Structure formats: structure tokens, C-alpha cells
Write a sequence for this structure.
DNA sequence: TCAAGTACCGACAAAAATGTAAGCCACCCA
DNA sequence: TGGGTGGCTTACATTTTTGTCGGTACTTGA
């Protein structure tokens, strides 16, 4: 256990970092422009606050977004993409392109399991 | 609902196709060489037969792998990668590279949720 | 006849991811 | 004093995903 198999590519770590229902979308938004909590909430209306904060925290822990608190009044927290996040974003471009090109083959629904992993407008 | 948001990249469809715990690993194996059911079971020992067949079926439905039955005795079923699958594979290369390069920053564990999405030796 | 191999199917259950709803704290405005 | 905003936190429930285990149909070999 914990042992890597000899034939491993780097997809495991990568999918851990952008996998799930929201991360890619959030990275995409934050990449377009830094945004504050409430702003992201508006940009991605279907996400719950719990998920939003949770994903943001994980992305911060993974070093792909940066969180900055401005001790103003009213309080302001801004999330921005890091260098590391930009690299990830670039690495995602070909994949996004593939998805875009070939979206809509057996589209509409895939095979009845379209909700938990990456739905929305990604 | 079901309406696409104006600012959508192609990651949604793509992540539906290779997201989850096993698909990337399976695609990776099948890409290296066509393989039969039992062979894949041996190559990816931790997957259950149910998951194996389920993922293979979905990947077949998504057009990234091809399933061919040889009416021999004993029966033989071979899974191979399609053109479409190869394109996906290529689109995954940068992501894999990113993951490989940066695996092991806060590694060992990410943030306590390392099992369901892409674990193993990807 | 019995065991073993191949490629599955399907009921059920555990685990993981996501959602809901309520509340907290600090501050402003009226 | 009450209500509103911003950025959260927490407990609990639901949905999705994955796993376990047993069974099927066929055939070869002992």
C-alpha cells in the first residue's frame, strides 16, 4: 500500500486537484479574474456555500489559488489564481479542447451518470 | 436547467469521460496495448469485476475504447483504444505531466480525500 | 463428475461526494 | 433595537460512486 506502481502517469495527482464537480469551473472563473467569495457565489449560482468554501480551501491547500483577506470594512476576501494554478490551467487547455470538439456525440446525457462529476457549464 | 452557461469551456464533457477512479488508468493500460478482460483485471488488481466491466462499458459508449469478441473457444474479448481515445490520451498528456512534476508538494496525502477520485498508480 | 477458466450480471451495502439549512460574528444604517 | 451584508462554520440528509459477493453459461481437462 502506498507503493506506486511502476507504470504510473501523473494523472492521479492531477485529477485529485481538479476532479470533482466544481473545481474546474472555479479555477476557470478565478483564472478569468480574481474574485471574492460572494462574487463566485453569483458566478456559479448552483454551488452551495459549503461546497464553495470547501473547494476553495482545497484548491488553496493544493496551491492553485491564493486567498487574501483585506482588513477593510466591510471585510473582503479575494481569491486569485497562482502561478501553479496557471500552469494547471494551461495543462487543461488541450483537454478542454477535446471536450469541446467532441461534446455532443451521444450528448444530452452520457450514460445516466452526469451529475456528480463536472456538470454545469464547464 | 440543462441550459449551458455562456462561459463554458469543454472540461465538463471531458471530465465526464475520464473522471472517476478508474477510467484514466484503464485508458492508460489499453492505450499501451489492447487487452482482454482478465488481463485488465490482472493489470489493475484493485478494481472489482463490477467496476471493471462498468467502466469499460461506459468508455465503449463514449467511443474511446473498442470491444471485440472473438468467437473462439474459450471465448475471448479484447478491448482496444480507438482513434477518438487516442486523441483524448494526447489531450491528457500535458495534464499528466503537470501532475507528475508537481506530485509531492503537500504529498503523501492531499487533504484527506484521496480515495474515490483517481488513486492508484495513475 | 468435479474443478477451473473466461466473461460477465445483479442485489445489496459501504463509502464518498454533494446538498440543505441554520447559525455565528463583526460591522453599518436607520 | 432591528435588519442587512459579508464570509464563513456546523450538523445532518441525500445522492453518487464504488465495493462485496454470489450466480450464470459455456467448455476444457482430470
Amino acid at each position: 500500500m502506498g507503493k506506486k506502481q511502476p507504470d504510473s502517469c501523473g494523472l492521479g495527482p492531477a485529477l485529485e486537484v481538479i476532479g470533482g464537480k466544481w473545481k474546474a469551473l472555479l479555477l476557470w472563473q478565478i483564472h478569468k479574474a480574481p474574485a471574492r467569495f460572494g462574487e463566485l457565489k453569483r458566478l456559479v449560482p448552483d454551488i452551495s456555500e459549503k461546497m464553495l468554501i470547501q473547494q476553495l480551501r482545497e484548491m488553496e491547500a493544493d496551491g492553485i489559488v491564493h486567498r487574501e483577506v483585506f482588513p477593510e470594512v466591510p471585510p473582503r476576501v479575494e481569491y486569485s489564481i497562482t502561478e501553479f494554478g496557471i500552469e494547471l490551467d494551461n495543462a487543461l487547455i488541450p483537454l478542454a479542447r477535446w471536450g469541446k470538439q467532441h461534446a455532443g456525440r451521444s450528448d444530452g446525457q452520457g450514460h445516466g451518470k452526469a451529475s456528480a462529476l463536472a456538470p454545469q457549464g464547464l
Remarks:
- The longest helix of chain A spans residues 83-102.
- Residues 20-22, 47-48, 50-51, 54, 73-75, 115-117 of chain A lie near DNA strand C (CB under 10 Å from a C1').
